[in-house]
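ASSEMBLY PREDICTION REQUEST
Request ID: AP-0331
Submitted by: J.K., bench scientist
Number of chains: two
Total residues: 711
Priority: normal
Notes: Please return the full assembly, not individual chains.
Input sequences:
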Amino acid sequence: MNALTEITLNHYLALSGILFMTGAAGVMMRRNILVIYMCLELMLNAANLALVAFSRFNTQPLLEGHIMVFFIITVAAAEVSVGLALIVSLYRLRQTTNVNDLTSLKF
Amino acid sequence: MNWIILLSPLVAAVLAGLVFRAHKSVAVGLSIAACTVSFAASAWVFFYPGSLPFTSVDWIKVGSLHVTIGGISDPLSNLMLLIVTGVGLLIHIFSVGYMKEDPSVSRFFAKLSFFMFSMLGIVLADNLVMMFIFWELVGLASYLLIGFWFQRPSAADAAKKAFIVNRVGDFGFMIGILTVWALWGTVDFHQLQVLVAGGTGPLGTKADWLILAGIGLFMGCVGKSAQFPLHVWLPDAMEGPTPVSALIHAATMVAAGVYMLARVFFILELKGEVLTVIAWTGTVTAVFAALIALQQNDIKRILAYSTLSQLGYMVAAVGMGAVSAGMFHLATHAFFKALLFLAAGSVIHAMHHEQDIWAMGGLRKKMPVTFATFGVATLALTGFPFLFAGFYSKEAILVAAFGANRAIFAVLLFTAGLTAFYMFRLFVVAFFGSPRGAAATHAHESPLVMVVPLVFLAVLSTVGGFLPIPQYLEGAAGHGHGAHGNVVMCLSIAAFVVAAGAGIWLYRDRTHDPVRVLIFRNKFYSDEIYEWFLVRPQDALARAASWFDQWIIGGLMVRGTAALATFSGEVLRLFQGGNLQAYVVLFILGVAYLCYWILIRPFP
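STATUS: Completed
Returned structure:
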């Protein structure tokens, strides 16, 4: 195995970072609330990826990161169902998903 | 069973004040009935002592402090019960006539009954803490009754003054009680007596605390019995209805201080210094008040200063160890001073609430019974030889003073002369001569319900001196007049004759006061002195505190905090533009900064 073909922890972390930044950029720049939501999920999974990578490359095979990720996936599933339900009812109420139109909570 | 003495006035007060407020005759009847029951029960206890023992109830049990609610039944309390309920009953009856036209008669009688309850509580109390509680209740009752006509600002002010001045004395009383408890570990009179008699208690260095205990207890008396320098409230308390002045500020409440001194005398006498302070305070009060009384023109104020003076006598007697003489004078004074006040009330009633003696005159023919009874009381107070009560009780005190301290004796004898002088001044000006004013011309005798109590009290003022009260208090033995009796008697008769003669000669057929002594007329400026040295500095302090509260506490701290929050809100709300992305950017910037702060900055 040489350095070019071997996949190390740094590769995973770099990928995780790229995914996270992509998600963050999406959250910051997109206007469609559904897309913002998907970008949020992307950030979440970037974190999951980092955790799994750390767990995999740990010298002691404790699998703590794996367990944590399972929890996160479970919670995220619950969160998605709630979040999507909110978005659907918001759309039904306002006929829009553009966050620029959803400003009734401002002062 | 004996608790009926204490509880029936309370029941009457509650019913008359809360239930039968609108039914005047029911309220009045209840109040008088309660007083009658108390009087009857007191008489039973007096004549059959020990037949009905008090059951005592535990009240507070904390560590070594054990306070009961119990009654005491000994000659001292039995005598006092009889005086309080007997004089109280007559005053209740008198009040029916005096307060007839007042719209809130029920309230008056409810308060009167409440006062009786509190006063009897003091008399019956078997420990200092219980006595203190009722002591305070009496203070409250006095406040309510002085301020009965609270629509008048002067009455409301007088009530407040009485209450506040009494608090000063009560503070000392409380210190005294606490010191007694600290020294002997009990507040029960009987146990204290046993401990003191057995010689257990403070010795050596702790003995100085006895002075604190004695002076503290005496301070309670100074407040309640209006001794110098806390005397200022009593003359002002004359703003209350006249029966109140008779009941509270002549016969019973002010006597509570003397009663308390007699009750704790066995503690006071442990230290000679304490007794000296007590004797001189009483003496100074006696002469001081008598001098002021010489030049007063308000009939009730003259009597008020006279009361102060006589209370000074009693306190001085206690201070000289002549407790039974003091209590004897207390008893006779209760009779004739209540009579004087009620007769004055009868006069005031007839004069349509005119109280200036120079506006009276010639009342002798218009109000014969009032005149006669007032005359009897005057003779009793001034110590007309042999016939009247005051002579014997004053004599007992003077004899004690002659034996104990010649300086005090001289001052008290001088005061006796002053008493005769100002009382005959009042008597001659108000009742003799010709009417000086429309009210005096049209005055008429008071109704029967007011006159009958006067007659009863006049009888008591006469025979009271023959009652063997000192002997009753001291057991069968008694003092007798002793060796000095005759000398003292001659001196005091001489003082009476000279002073009474001078008073009659100087004030006969006058239309205005021929003498003006401003310092007496202005009460030695004591109110002004208090105004300058106590009221003004306190007002200044209060204003400073008010300013501090308004601007520093309220302005800077309370409203300042609120203003800060409002201001920050005004600034921060500018960030709430409603743009979700702006929030996210700020949020991420914040997280980035936190990451820098925690992860990067500590490891350069």
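REVIEWER COMMENTS: Confidence is low (pLDDT under 50) at residues 476-481 of chain B.
SIGN-OFF: pending second reviewer
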